[in-house]
Specification:
Layout: E1 4-19, E2 25-40, E3 44-48, H1 55-62, E4 70-75, E5 78-79, H2 85-92, E6 95-98, H3 102-105, H4 112-122, H5 128-141, H6 158-170, E7 176-180, H7 188-205, E8 208-213, H8 216-222, E9 225-230, E10 233-239, H9 240-245, H10 250-257, E11 308-309, E12 315-316
Parallel strand pairs: 3-8, 3-9, 6-7, 7-8
Antiparallel strand pairs: 1-2, 1-4, 4-5, 9-10, 10-12, 11-12
Helix pairs in contact: 4-5, 4-6, 6-7
The protein binds iron/sulfur cluster.
The site of iron/sulfur cluster (SF4) has 14 residues, from loops.
Length: 322
């Protein structure tokens, strides 16, 4: 691993809606609230958190499928928010996404060979015969007989369709793949196959991954480091091994305590997080987690904690580490 491939600085996304007869009642919802992190070449960063924590918005902001409110993203030395549409299209060749629902993201009326060839046509890569060869090569790498290229998405199983989604992402030889809940819709046994395929491909193609999931157990299998998000902000950023062994943030601790383990005899009782995630349109003052935190202190209700360094390259947004 070396230089950061992706650097995110104080990234923010606020959605504004207007209600009422005269549309004078304004509501702001901050989906992503000042995220800053970087990902090194060849690294896998897992981004984890409950539904609505802003992790998918983060992925969409990086690729500019959603435009940010403020902040900066540098990818391979380029400031993405300063690029025009044509320049951004060129960057997307190096930055691909894999989505949760492969069926929804694959055109049901297109044969698989045409689905896979499309990114090459969009980015004007190769002659017709070169594109055909590339489709066959990537199909083999994704575990398919190239002769199946004339089939349609519905003729494949859920796991196979996700492998087609991954194959499509590989067609342009990207540097970064942003995978948004790529195994959430799959059976547990198939999840393991897809995670193993992603790991293999990372070695073969020197890929860097941003792996978004609500499932800490899944993130653990694939990530070098993990960013835990809560209400649009980072709660903890740690290397994967240390975080699973010794979580810093009370929210991470509670999430981890409910992940199934192979040897339940040695584990502690699950920590129950009280209540639901607060309404992002009206977040609590101070630490956003204070309404649910078992370790809440007076300061937590008034002062928003910074992301404090906690040693060994780890960070926690919690007053316990101030
Ligand atoms: Fe809990 Fe306070 Fe830390 Fe927030 S800052 S996680 S409320 S201890």
């Amino acid at each position: 691993m070396s230089q950061p491939l992706l650097e995110i600085e104080d990234l923010k996304k606020v959605y504004t809606s207007h209600k009422g007869v005269l549309k004078r009642t304004r509501t702001d919802v901050t989906a992503v609230d000042g995220i800053g992190l970087s990902i090194k070449t060849g690294e896998t960063l897992g981004v984890v958190g409950e539904s609505g924590c802003g992790k998918s918005t983060l992925g969409r902001l990086i690729t500019r499928l959603t435009e940010p409110t403020s902040g900066a993203v540098r990818f391979d030395g380029q400031s993405l928010f300063e690029l025009n549409q044509r320049e951004m299209k060129a960057v997307r060749r190096d930055m691909q996404m894999v989505f949760q629902d492969p069926y929804a993201s694959l055109n049901p009326r297109q044969q698989v060979q045409s689905i896979l060839e499309e990114p090459l046509i969009v980015h004007k890569i190769g002659s017709k015969s070169e594109r055909k060869d590339k489709v066959a090569e990537i199909m083999k790498i994704a575990g398919f007989d190239p002769d199946l290229g004339n089939r349609y998405p519905h003729q494949f199983s859920g796991g196979q369709r996700q492998r087609i989604g991954i194959a499509r992402a590989l067609m342009t030889n990207p540097k970064l793949i942003i995978a948004d809940e790529p195994v959430s819709a799959l059976d547990v046994s198939i999840q393991a196959q897809i995670l193993n395929l992603l790991k293999e491909l990372q070695g073969t193609f020197s890929l860097t991954y941003l792996f978004i999931s609500h499932d800490l157990g899944v993130v653990r299998h694939i990530s070098d480091r993990v960013a835990v998000m809560y209400l649009g902000r980072l709660a903890e950023l740690s290397d994967s091994e240390s975080m699973y062994r010794n979580p810093l943030h009370p929210y991470t601790e509670a999430l981890l305590s409910s992940v199934p383990v192979a040897e339940p005899a040695g584990r502690q009782e699950p920590i129950v997080i009280k209540g639901d995630m607060p309404n992002p349109a009206n977040p609590p003052a101070g630490c956003a987690f204070h309404t649910r935190c078992p370790k809440v202190m007076d300061i937590c209700k008034k002062v928003k904690p910074d992301l404090f360094p906690a040693g060994e390259g780890r960070f926690a947004a919690c007053h316990l580490y101030a």
